[in-house]
Specification:
The complex is a heterodimer of chains A (171) and B (225). Chain A is mainly alpha-helical and 171 residues long. Chain A contains eight helices and no strands. Chain B is of the alpha+beta class and 225 residues long. In chain B, helix 3 crosses helix 4. Chain B has helices spanning 10-19, 21-31, 57-76, 97-106, 121-127, 211-220; strands at 133-135, 142-150, 153-161, 166-172, 181-184, 188-195, 198-205, 221-223. Chain B is 30% helix and 23% strand. Chain B is built from six helices and eight strands; from the N terminus they run αααααβββββββαβ. The chains are: A mainly alpha (171), B alpha+beta (225). The interface between A and B is large, with 61 and 56 residues.
């Protein structure tokens, strides 16, 4: 079989989805990995996997959670391979620092650093809610949690960030 | 106690968010990282070997072979195995009816899925409206239904599951044909059959027995136009 025969329509569909969701994929990967370079690698792998399994996506309206789920899995695979489970915020690599250096002003830089410093358990649901617009039910489904757990994490994440901001102001 | 064991009500979270909209705005702004230009990886050719299977591997592979042939037809000019074709059936929007049917299939890869999931009745009614055609449930397990346009006309595009994979059915009440027009490709076969003042296209994989489907469809469909 000539495998390229069915490609044009399939490729058009894929390009359309990527054009719409690439930014979300990168930002989600970046906040998961806390590293721009890793995020770029994760997105590349996620795009490849999405391309190969595109026919499993039944409805393009569901493309965003489908793609973000792929990003999430690829990020987990990456860290399983590298065994980079923790990031020392006081000893960042250039690529990790680059993520924080882009903030347009000092206040946002501080807040970005505080988000960066949150545990994964808090940071991920917060990104999904604030950046991706997910409901708590959708976050629960994606992360395999109960809704109550998601609500708790979102609540505590905000309190931690506010508490950090207050301490920063006082110092 | 695990930190997740404490239950948090949605109202509590909403209150926290609503009480400090400025913080929420900053939070959203802080998360808006600059995104590098898209660096698309080299995408491999897709064939049955590297497509994630949906559960019935061999049938899936057959259907991708069929889809590939359909795509070839659309882009290179399909060699329709029908001696009657020579020259007749040209359509104003380009190509013969056969070519338009095959080109249309190329544009709907979603219809190639193998699944046991039936299209809900309300969706089927929308796709096959009563003012176009009526259809009973004898046509088979309909797993895909989409209202499409071929030659400028509304055409219900349905898929039923055959023995070897999905079988495409296009209901074309406004496309009258003089006789059966056969469609043959390396991996597909099918036909456009006259039904009253319209026609129905039925396309399946090579080796798929279409006669029973053909009979079921013809028996279950009647035009309203």
């Amino acid at each position: 079989m000539n495998s390229s025969l069915e490609a044009p329509g399939r490729r058009r569909r894929f390009d359309r989805l990527v054009a719409v969701f690439h930014q979300d994929m990168f930002r989600y990967a970046a906040w998961l990995s806390r590293d721009r370079s890793i995020a770029e690698d994760v997105v590349q792998e996620a795009l490849l996997r999405a391309w190969k399994s595109l026919d499993a996506l039944r409805d393009d309206d569901a493309a965003k959670p489908w793609l973000l789920t792929i990003v999430r899995r690829e990020n987990a695979r990456f860290f399983e391979r590298r065994r980079l489970e923790t990031v020392d915020i006081d000893n960042l690599t250039a690529s990790q620092s680059a993520l924080l250096a882009e903030a347009p002003n000092e206040e946002l830089a501080d807040l970005r650093e505080a988000i960066y410093g949150l545990d994964d358990d808090y940071r991920e649901p917060l990104v999904l809610q604030v950046l991706m617009g997910y409901s708590t039910n959708e976050i629960a489904e994606l992360m395999g949690l109960k809704q109550g757990a998601v609500l708790t994490r979102l609540h505590r994440a905000r309190l931690k960030l506010k508490d950090g901001a207050a301490k920063e102001a006082n110092s | 106690m695990s930190r997740d064991n404490e239950t948090m009500q949605e109202d509590d979270l909403n209150k926290l968010m609503n009480d400090d909209p400025a913080f929420e705005a900053k939070l959203a702004q802080a998360m808006q990282l600059d995104v590098p230009e898209l660096d698309m990886p080299e995408l491999p050719d897709i064939d049955a070997a590297n497509v994630v299977p949906l559960g019935r591997g061999p049938k899936k592979m057959m259907w991708f072979a069929m889809a590939a042939t359909v795509a070839l037809a659309a882009f290179l000019g399909f060699q329709v195995g029908n001696n009657e074709l020579g020259g007749h059936g040209e359509h104003s929007s380009g190509g013969t009816l056969e070519e338009q049917v095959l080109a249309h299939l190329d544009g709907e890869p979603a219809s190639y899925r193998i699944t046991d999931e039936r299209v809900p009745d309300d969706q089927l009614v929308k796709v096959v409206p009563a003012n176009l055609a009526t259809m009973n449930h004898d046509a088979g397990l309909i797993t895909y239904a989409m209202s499409c346009h071929i030659n400028g006309k509304d055409v219900p595009h349905l898929v039923v599951q055959g023995e070897k994979g999905p079988i495409t059915i296009l209901l074309m009440p406004h496309e009258k044909v003089d006789g059966t027009r056969e469609l043959e490709g390396e991996n597909i076969h099918g036909f456009i059959i006259p039904v009253g003042d319209g026609s129905i296209a039925i396309v399946g994989g090579k080796g798929e027995a279409l006669d029973r489907v053909r009979q079921n469809v013809v028996d279950s469909v009647s035009w309203s136009t």
